[in-house]
Design a protein that fits this description.
Layout (H helix, E strand, L loop, with lengths): L14 E8 L2 E11 L5 E10 L1 H14 L2
Antiparallel strand pairs: 1-2, 2-3
């Protein structure tokens, strides 16, 4: 006799970069998808990255100070 076993696979949280356009400016966030009790995915902001110029300033600072 063959039985189908349903084994729940734990939900793996995955982080990704999200963009938001606010008053014509684009901002970047690192967000994580989390399941709520109803099984729907809700976004949780992990880190605010800022706009493109701020991100480039951080990379330039890192390049100058970590050689």
């Amino acid at each position: 006799m063959f039985f189908n076993l349903i084994v729940p696979i734990p939900y793996m949280n995955m982080a990704y970069i999200r963009t938001k356009k606010i008053k014509g400016n684009i901002y970047y966030y690192i967000v994580e998808g989390k399941l709520n009790k109803k099984g729907k995915v809700k976004q949780k902001v992990i880190k605010y990255l800022g706009n493109t110029s701020r991100i480039l300033e951080i990379f330039d600072f890192y390049d100058k100070n970590h050689k």
